[in-house]
Amino acid sequence: MASYVVTGSNRGIGLAFIRNLSANPNNTSKLKNVHVLQADITDVPALREAAKEVERVAGGALDVLINNGAYLALDRGDFTLDAYDGKEDLLDKDFTDFFKVNTLGVIKTINVFLPLLRKASEKSLAKVITISTGASDLEFTVNAGFWWFAPYATSKSATNMVMAKYAAAHKQENILFLSISPGAVNSANAPPNEVEATFGPMIKVFQSGYPEWNVKDSGAFISQYGDKAWL
């Protein structure tokens, strides 16, 4: 029976992971092996307490860590970077808030759970999956002119590099590190009309970059299709 830790599983993508993983009889049976733990991914002491509980219920090892927890505020999502000129207090706040959760939170989470992943890797391939976004892809950003959510996209780009650094540092170990973009997902649970009003123009830009829209290497950054089709 494989063991999973999914951060940010109270709604959206994380909750969908829990529902699908728990439906697999090889993992759980009727949710009886789903354990809900509370921990802020920026709070290392809380993460260590969660890891202790995971160690207890999972038999001392962890097969898969899914870094899904993230921060995305819609405030100033339409700011270009030069729009912060004269608003340096907001610039500092936005980039600090996004990097604290999306980048440093991932590092802290991986570091805390790495001993359990190493234990699992003694028997089979352990996996660390981080949910990223196509908005963090440099080539797409330039080619499609995707300027929205600069602090969020920048923090996620940094996190892609974080995953590559872990992959490089642990290349000789039986642990896979991978960043994956899930595509267009209504993780806010908002009505379709609100999603269209907020994200419609951005989705059109994504489609312009990938008009055809209708995991092999550790450290890679790929879409849900295994390539760079971000939707």
Describe the structure.
- By secondary structure, this protein is an alpha/beta fold.
- The chain has helices at residues 12-23, 44-57, 88-102, 104-121, 138-144, 150-169, 192-209; strands at residues 4-6, 64-67, 126-131, 175-181, 221-223.
- Strand 4, helix 7 and strand 5 form a beta-alpha-beta unit.
- The longest helix has 20 residues, at 150-169.
- The chain starts with a strand and ends in an 8-residue tail after the last strand.
User: Level of helix content?
Assistant: 40-55%
Task: Provide the residue-averaged pLDDT.
Answer: 85
- Rounded radius of gyration (Å): 18 Å
* Euclidean distance between termini CA atoms: 32 Å
Estimated structural class: alpha/beta
Number of contiguous helices: 7
Count the beta strands.
5
Largest sheet: 5 strands, parallel
Strand arrangement within the widest β-sheet reads 1-2-3-4-5
Described by the principal axes of the CA atoms, the overall outline is globular
- Sequence of secondary-structure elements: EHHEHHEHHEHE
Which properties best describe this structure?
alpha/beta, single chain, NAD(P)-bd_dom_sf, SDR_fam, about 230 residues, NAD(P)-binding protein, 5-stranded parallel sheet, SDR_enzymes, 5 strands, about 45% helix
